[in-house]
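Hey team,

Filing this mostly as a record. A colleague (T.K.) asked me to run one chain through the structure pipeline before their review meeting, and I want the input and output archived in the tracker in case anyone asks later how it was produced. No errors, nothing strange. Just documentation.

Input sequence:
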Amino acid sequence: MKIKKLLFYLLAGILAGCVPVMSLHPLYTEEDVVFEKKLLGTWVDDSNDAIWEFKRLDESEKAYELILRDNEGKKGSFVIRLVELEDLLFLDVYPNKYMCKQQDPEEMEWTYNAFFEVGVHTFIKIDSIEPTLRMGLTDDDNMKELLGEDPNAVKHTWLEDGKFILTASTKELQAFVLKYAYDIRVFPTRIALTRKKVESSRESSEQNPNEN
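Output structure:
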């Protein structure tokens, strides 16, 4: 299984079985990206014990690395950008590439298959960050319902396995999520994360910047 597809299925497992809607293009342009320190730190989904850890990816970039851990110890790593569209916030989620030696194409059994890897994005709507990180998640089954009712809602193409992928441009995606921001066919699953308490004052300072 291709690395990025594997990471998205891991993401689906953590998100209560929801397979996220995938897009060829990102939800952001550079002017739409913001950085919010309140998002940094470790958050816990009490419904399934999943851990969401947001770190700053690079001091020169307005981007995060998200490490996801489920209750079985499986992990995924994603590049996250916080996208501000009008008065709404979204996360653009993109899998990190080659996170361990086994994922290096030169170490793969089927080395040349790596050339056919296609990076894809998904997106999450943020309802609030503090005191609880509340988010709305996409699900491809619900999106199929919307596309069945209105095939022109957003540009997409159907794949051989009965799945689909969004092919809309970034600007078209932005118009789509703004129009359907409160539609349960696009963001049907709601989750709430609480900030994980840390023992040391140093860790607490790093993970909860509002205390400084």
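Quick notes for T.K.: Helices lie at 3-14, 140-149, 170-179, 201-207. Residues 98-102, 200-205 have pLDDT under 50 and may be disordered.
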